[in-house]
Fold this sequence. Notes:
Chain A is mainly alpha-helical. Chain A contains four helices and no strands. Chain B has helices spanning 3-24, 85-98, 117-125, 139-144, 188-198, and strands at 30-32, 54-57, 62-64, 73-77, 105-110, 131-134, 163-167, 173-178, 184-186.
Amino acid sequence: MRERKTYLAYRLVALLTAVVCAIAGVMLLLGFMQGTILPAAASGGRLLATNHWGSYLAGLTGALFLVWSILLAATLRDPPRGHAIAVGSAAGFLLLGFVNLLARFSGEYGEAGGWQKLVTTTATFAALSLIWLSPTEPPEQGS
Amino acid sequence: MPRITVGRVVGTLVCLSVLFLNYRLDFGRASQESAVDDLAGRGPRVGEHFADFDLEEVGGGRVTSADLLGKPTVLVFARSLDWCPFTKSFVTELAASIGRQPEVNVLLVFAPNQVNTKAIRFLFDRGIAFRVALDQGRQLIERLGIANVTIRSRIETGVPYPAVFVLDAQGIVRFRDTRRNHRIWLAGSRIKEELDRLG
Protein backbone atom coordinates (compact mmCIF):
# COMPACT_ATOMS: atom_id res chain seq x y z
CA MET A 1 0.00 0.00 0.00
CA ARG A 2 1.38 3.38 -0.98
CA GLU A 3 2.15 5.82 1.83
CA ARG A 4 -0.34 8.68 1.73
CA LYS A 5 1.31 12.11 1.48
CA THR A 6 -0.14 15.08 3.34
CA TYR A 7 0.88 17.83 0.86
CA LEU A 8 0.85 20.24 3.77
CA ALA A 9 2.75 23.04 1.98
CA TYR A 10 0.44 22.82 -1.05
CA ARG A 11 -2.63 22.83 1.17
CA LEU A 12 -1.41 25.97 2.94
CA VAL A 13 -0.77 27.79 -0.35
CA ALA A 14 -4.12 26.66 -1.79
CA LEU A 15 -5.95 27.69 1.38
CA LEU A 16 -4.30 31.12 1.45
CA THR A 17 -5.06 31.64 -2.24
CA ALA A 18 -8.67 30.55 -1.78
CA VAL A 19 -9.12 32.98 1.11
CA VAL A 20 -7.58 35.89 -0.85
CA CYS A 21 -9.74 35.07 -3.89
CA ALA A 22 -12.85 34.87 -1.73
CA ILE A 23 -12.13 38.27 -0.14
CA ALA A 24 -11.44 39.83 -3.57
CA GLY A 25 -14.64 38.26 -4.94
CA VAL A 26 -16.80 39.54 -2.09
CA MET A 27 -15.30 43.05 -2.32
CA LEU A 28 -15.88 43.22 -6.08
CA LEU A 29 -19.45 41.97 -5.73
CA LEU A 30 -20.07 44.49 -2.97
CA GLY A 31 -18.61 47.22 -5.22
CA PHE A 32 -20.97 46.11 -7.98
CA MET A 33 -23.96 46.22 -5.64
CA GLN A 34 -22.97 49.62 -4.25
CA GLY A 35 -22.78 50.96 -7.79
CA THR A 36 -26.07 49.48 -8.94
CA ILE A 37 -28.56 48.19 -6.38
CA LEU A 38 -27.78 49.57 -2.93
CA PRO A 39 -28.93 53.11 -2.16
CA ALA A 40 -26.01 55.55 -1.91
CA ALA A 41 -26.89 56.69 1.61
CA ALA A 42 -27.08 53.16 3.06
CA SER A 43 -23.99 51.71 1.39
CA GLY A 44 -21.47 54.14 2.92
CA GLY A 45 -18.26 55.07 1.08
CA ARG A 46 -18.00 53.55 -2.40
CA LEU A 47 -15.50 50.72 -2.84
CA LEU A 48 -15.10 51.35 -6.58
CA ALA A 49 -14.89 54.78 -8.19
CA THR A 50 -16.19 53.74 -11.58
CA ASN A 51 -19.21 54.12 -13.85
CA HIS A 52 -22.06 51.65 -14.37
CA TRP A 53 -20.09 49.57 -16.90
CA GLY A 54 -17.13 49.39 -14.52
CA SER A 55 -19.50 48.18 -11.79
CA TYR A 56 -20.89 45.55 -14.14
CA LEU A 57 -17.42 44.24 -15.01
CA ALA A 58 -16.51 44.26 -11.31
CA GLY A 59 -19.60 42.13 -10.58
CA LEU A 60 -18.69 39.56 -13.23
CA THR A 61 -15.05 39.48 -12.07
CA GLY A 62 -16.14 39.11 -8.45
CA ALA A 63 -18.28 36.08 -9.38
CA LEU A 64 -15.29 34.51 -11.19
CA PHE A 65 -13.06 35.12 -8.17
CA LEU A 66 -15.58 33.36 -5.92
CA VAL A 67 -15.72 30.38 -8.30
CA TRP A 68 -11.93 30.24 -8.32
CA SER A 69 -11.92 30.33 -4.53
CA ILE A 70 -14.42 27.45 -4.32
CA LEU A 71 -12.41 25.33 -6.79
CA LEU A 72 -9.21 25.83 -4.81
CA ALA A 73 -10.95 25.05 -1.54
CA ALA A 74 -12.26 21.83 -3.11
CA THR A 75 -8.71 20.66 -3.81
CA LEU A 76 -7.78 20.86 -0.13
CA ARG A 77 -9.48 17.57 0.69
CA ASP A 78 -7.69 15.53 -1.94
CA PRO A 79 -4.80 17.50 -3.51
CA PRO A 80 -3.80 14.90 -6.18
CA ARG A 81 -7.31 15.09 -7.67
CA GLY A 82 -7.02 18.86 -7.87
CA HIS A 83 -3.74 18.96 -9.82
CA ALA A 84 -5.38 20.55 -12.88
CA ILE A 85 -6.92 23.27 -10.71
CA ALA A 86 -3.49 24.04 -9.24
CA VAL A 87 -1.97 24.27 -12.73
CA GLY A 88 -4.86 26.45 -13.92
CA SER A 89 -4.46 28.69 -10.87
CA ALA A 90 -0.72 29.04 -11.53
CA ALA A 91 -1.49 30.07 -15.12
CA GLY A 92 -4.11 32.50 -13.80
CA PHE A 93 -1.62 34.13 -11.45
CA LEU A 94 0.94 34.42 -14.22
CA LEU A 95 -1.60 36.11 -16.47
CA LEU A 96 -2.57 38.42 -13.64
CA GLY A 97 1.07 39.37 -13.14
CA PHE A 98 1.51 39.98 -16.87
CA VAL A 99 -1.64 42.13 -17.20
CA ASN A 100 -0.42 44.12 -14.22
CA LEU A 101 2.91 44.62 -15.99
CA LEU A 102 1.12 46.03 -19.03
CA ALA A 103 -1.02 48.27 -16.83
CA ARG A 104 2.09 49.68 -15.19
CA PHE A 105 3.83 50.18 -18.51
CA SER A 106 0.82 52.08 -19.93
CA GLY A 107 1.43 55.00 -17.56
CA GLU A 108 -2.30 55.17 -16.82
CA TYR A 109 -1.92 54.22 -13.17
CA GLY A 110 0.86 56.50 -11.99
CA GLU A 111 -1.10 57.19 -8.80
CA ALA A 112 -0.66 53.54 -7.75
CA GLY A 113 3.06 54.13 -7.10
CA GLY A 114 4.89 50.92 -6.18
CA TRP A 115 1.74 48.89 -5.56
CA GLN A 116 1.57 47.44 -9.05
CA LYS A 117 5.13 46.17 -8.80
CA LEU A 118 4.24 44.47 -5.51
CA VAL A 119 1.10 42.89 -7.00
CA THR A 120 3.05 41.44 -9.94
CA THR A 121 5.73 40.08 -7.61
CA THR A 122 3.14 38.50 -5.30
CA ALA A 123 1.17 36.95 -8.17
CA THR A 124 4.33 35.51 -9.73
CA PHE A 125 5.51 33.98 -6.47
CA ALA A 126 2.03 32.51 -5.94
CA ALA A 127 2.29 30.94 -9.42
CA LEU A 128 5.74 29.55 -8.62
CA SER A 129 4.48 28.08 -5.34
CA LEU A 130 1.58 26.35 -7.07
CA ILE A 131 3.85 25.06 -9.85
CA TRP A 132 6.30 23.43 -7.45
CA LEU A 133 4.05 22.40 -4.58
CA SER A 134 1.07 20.97 -6.45
CA PRO A 135 0.86 17.16 -6.29
CA THR A 136 2.20 15.32 -9.28
CA GLU A 137 1.27 11.75 -8.34
CA PRO A 138 -1.94 10.25 -9.69
CA PRO A 139 -4.75 9.94 -7.16
CA GLU A 140 -5.14 6.57 -5.47
CA GLN A 141 -7.61 4.23 -7.12
CA GLY A 142 -10.98 4.25 -5.42
CA SER A 143 -10.17 7.19 -3.20
CA MET B 1 12.53 13.97 -18.89
CA PRO B 2 9.06 13.41 -17.40
CA ARG B 3 6.33 15.69 -18.78
CA ILE B 4 5.55 17.12 -15.37
CA THR B 5 9.18 18.23 -14.89
CA VAL B 6 9.23 19.90 -18.30
CA GLY B 7 6.02 21.73 -17.37
CA ARG B 8 7.53 22.90 -14.09
CA VAL B 9 10.72 24.11 -15.74
CA VAL B 10 8.81 25.97 -18.46
CA GLY B 11 6.44 27.49 -15.87
CA THR B 12 9.38 28.60 -13.75
CA LEU B 13 11.12 30.20 -16.73
CA VAL B 14 7.95 32.15 -17.61
CA CYS B 15 7.61 33.28 -13.98
CA LEU B 16 11.22 34.41 -13.88
CA SER B 17 10.70 36.34 -17.14
CA VAL B 18 7.71 38.18 -15.65
CA LEU B 19 9.71 38.96 -12.49
CA PHE B 20 12.63 40.20 -14.60
CA LEU B 21 10.35 42.48 -16.63
CA ASN B 22 8.70 43.69 -13.45
CA TYR B 23 11.97 45.07 -12.16
CA ARG B 24 13.50 45.91 -15.56
CA LEU B 25 10.55 48.04 -16.70
CA ASP B 26 11.71 51.09 -14.78
CA PHE B 27 15.07 51.09 -16.51
CA GLY B 28 15.24 53.74 -19.19
CA ARG B 29 12.08 55.50 -18.05
CA ALA B 30 12.14 57.86 -15.15
CA SER B 31 11.79 61.45 -14.15
CA GLN B 32 14.89 63.55 -13.74
CA GLU B 33 15.49 66.55 -11.49
CA SER B 34 18.18 68.12 -13.64
CA ALA B 35 17.23 70.06 -16.77
CA VAL B 36 18.39 68.95 -20.20
CA ASP B 37 18.59 71.13 -23.30
CA ASP B 38 19.17 68.76 -26.19
CA LEU B 39 17.74 71.32 -28.62
CA ALA B 40 19.80 74.28 -27.43
CA GLY B 41 19.83 76.96 -30.09
CA ARG B 42 16.26 76.23 -31.15
CA GLY B 43 13.42 78.31 -29.79
CA PRO B 44 13.69 81.17 -27.32
CA ARG B 45 16.59 81.11 -24.91
CA VAL B 46 16.33 81.85 -21.18
CA GLY B 47 15.84 85.60 -20.80
CA GLU B 48 14.18 86.01 -24.20
CA HIS B 49 10.54 86.72 -24.93
CA PHE B 50 8.56 83.62 -25.92
CA ALA B 51 7.24 83.71 -29.48
CA ASP B 52 3.71 85.04 -29.95
CA PHE B 53 1.17 82.34 -30.71
CA ASP B 54 -2.52 81.83 -31.27
CA LEU B 55 -3.72 78.24 -30.74
CA GLU B 56 -7.04 76.45 -30.76
CA GLU B 57 -8.03 75.42 -27.24
CA VAL B 58 -9.73 72.11 -26.49
CA GLY B 59 -13.19 72.86 -25.15
CA GLY B 60 -13.68 75.84 -27.44
CA GLY B 61 -12.09 79.20 -28.08
CA ARG B 62 -8.49 80.12 -28.63
CA VAL B 63 -5.53 80.71 -26.41
CA THR B 64 -2.92 83.31 -27.29
CA SER B 65 0.40 84.25 -25.75
CA ALA B 66 -1.19 87.53 -24.65
CA ASP B 67 -3.87 85.63 -22.65
CA LEU B 68 -1.16 84.08 -20.51
CA LEU B 69 0.49 87.32 -19.43
CA GLY B 70 0.09 88.41 -15.82
CA LYS B 71 0.76 84.97 -14.33
CA PRO B 72 3.68 82.55 -14.53
CA THR B 73 3.11 79.96 -17.25
CA VAL B 74 4.26 76.39 -17.76
CA LEU B 75 4.18 75.65 -21.46
CA VAL B 76 4.49 71.95 -22.20
CA PHE B 77 4.98 70.47 -25.68
CA ALA B 78 4.15 66.80 -25.38
CA ARG B 79 3.77 63.70 -27.53
CA SER B 80 0.37 62.17 -26.76
CA LEU B 81 -1.99 61.44 -23.90
CA ASP B 82 -3.64 58.80 -26.05
CA TRP B 83 -0.87 56.22 -26.43
CA CYS B 84 2.39 57.55 -24.96
CA PRO B 85 3.08 56.06 -21.46
CA PHE B 86 5.90 58.54 -20.88
CA THR B 87 3.69 61.59 -21.53
CA LYS B 88 1.04 60.13 -19.23
CA SER B 89 3.59 59.56 -16.48
CA PHE B 90 4.99 63.07 -16.92
CA VAL B 91 1.58 64.79 -16.85
CA THR B 92 0.43 62.76 -13.83
CA GLU B 93 3.61 63.71 -11.99
CA LEU B 94 3.34 67.36 -13.00
CA ALA B 95 -0.26 67.53 -11.77
CA ALA B 96 0.75 65.96 -8.45
CA SER B 97 3.60 68.45 -8.04
CA ILE B 98 1.83 71.65 -9.07
CA GLY B 99 -1.70 70.76 -8.00
CA ARG B 100 -4.46 73.28 -8.61
CA GLN B 101 -2.80 76.67 -8.52
CA PRO B 102 -5.06 79.37 -9.95
CA GLU B 103 -2.10 81.77 -9.99
CA VAL B 104 -0.24 79.60 -12.54
CA ASN B 105 -1.13 78.85 -16.18
CA VAL B 106 -0.34 75.35 -17.36
CA LEU B 107 -0.82 74.84 -21.08
CA LEU B 108 -0.26 71.49 -22.75
CA VAL B 109 0.35 71.80 -26.49
CA PHE B 110 -0.15 68.84 -28.82
CA ALA B 111 -0.12 68.18 -32.52
CA PRO B 112 -3.82 68.19 -33.51
CA ASN B 113 -3.84 64.55 -34.65
CA GLN B 114 -2.71 63.48 -31.18
CA VAL B 115 -5.72 64.79 -29.28
CA ASN B 116 -8.87 62.69 -29.10
CA THR B 117 -11.58 61.75 -26.61
CA LYS B 118 -9.35 59.22 -24.87
CA ALA B 119 -6.62 61.80 -24.34
CA ILE B 120 -9.07 64.33 -22.88
CA ARG B 121 -10.61 61.65 -20.67
CA PHE B 122 -7.15 60.95 -19.27
CA LEU B 123 -7.10 64.47 -17.81
CA PHE B 124 -10.79 64.59 -16.90
CA ASP B 125 -10.80 61.26 -15.02
CA ARG B 126 -7.89 62.41 -12.87
CA GLY B 127 -9.27 65.87 -12.22
CA ILE B 128 -6.29 67.50 -13.97
CA ALA B 129 -7.34 71.03 -14.89
CA PHE B 130 -4.50 71.94 -17.27
CA ARG B 131 -5.46 73.80 -20.44
CA VAL B 132 -4.94 71.88 -23.66
CA ALA B 133 -4.18 73.52 -27.01
CA LEU B 134 -3.86 72.17 -30.52
CA ASP B 135 -1.08 73.45 -32.74
CA GLN B 136 -2.94 73.32 -36.08
CA GLY B 137 -0.52 72.78 -38.91
CA ARG B 138 2.23 72.46 -36.29
CA GLN B 139 3.09 76.09 -36.95
CA LEU B 140 4.36 76.83 -33.44
CA ILE B 141 6.18 73.50 -33.12
CA GLU B 142 7.92 74.11 -36.46
CA ARG B 143 8.70 77.72 -35.59
CA LEU B 144 10.34 76.65 -32.33
CA GLY B 145 12.31 73.96 -34.15
CA ILE B 146 11.14 71.18 -31.84
CA ALA B 147 9.35 69.03 -34.44
CA ASN B 148 10.43 65.42 -34.03
CA VAL B 149 11.91 64.36 -37.33
CA THR B 150 12.99 60.90 -36.23
CA ILE B 151 9.59 59.29 -35.73
CA ARG B 152 9.62 55.51 -35.89
CA SER B 153 5.96 54.70 -36.44
CA ARG B 154 2.93 56.27 -38.08
CA ILE B 155 1.27 56.78 -34.70
CA GLU B 156 3.97 59.34 -33.82
CA THR B 157 3.19 61.56 -36.80
CA GLY B 158 3.37 65.22 -35.86
CA VAL B 159 4.73 64.85 -32.33
CA PRO B 160 7.26 67.35 -31.04
CA TYR B 161 10.30 66.54 -28.96
CA PRO B 162 9.20 66.91 -25.34
CA ALA B 163 9.83 70.49 -24.23
CA VAL B 164 8.95 72.56 -21.18
CA PHE B 165 9.18 76.35 -21.00
CA VAL B 166 8.52 78.24 -17.79
CA LEU B 167 7.59 81.86 -18.53
CA ASP B 168 7.25 84.68 -16.06
CA ALA B 169 4.24 87.00 -15.90
CA GLN B 170 5.73 89.13 -18.70
CA GLY B 171 6.13 86.17 -21.06
CA ILE B 172 9.92 85.98 -20.67
CA VAL B 173 11.44 82.47 -20.68
CA ARG B 174 12.91 81.79 -17.25
CA PHE B 175 13.57 78.08 -17.64
CA ARG B 176 13.61 75.61 -20.51
CA ASP B 177 14.01 71.88 -20.88
CA THR B 178 14.12 70.12 -24.28
CA ARG B 179 14.75 66.43 -24.79
CA ARG B 180 15.41 64.05 -27.63
CA ASN B 181 14.86 61.08 -25.30
CA HIS B 182 11.17 61.05 -24.39
CA ARG B 183 11.64 58.13 -22.00
CA ILE B 184 13.19 60.38 -19.37
CA TRP B 185 11.09 63.35 -18.44
CA LEU B 186 11.66 66.45 -16.32
CA ALA B 187 10.52 65.92 -12.73
CA GLY B 188 7.36 67.79 -11.75
CA SER B 189 9.09 68.86 -8.53
CA ARG B 190 11.74 70.69 -10.60
CA ILE B 191 9.07 72.64 -12.47
CA LYS B 192 7.41 73.48 -9.15
CA GLU B 193 10.78 74.69 -7.88
CA GLU B 194 11.16 77.00 -10.90
CA LEU B 195 7.64 78.36 -10.36
CA ASP B 196 8.38 78.99 -6.68
CA ARG B 197 11.49 80.91 -7.72
CA LEU B 198 9.30 83.19 -9.83
CA GLY B 199 7.18 83.84 -6.77
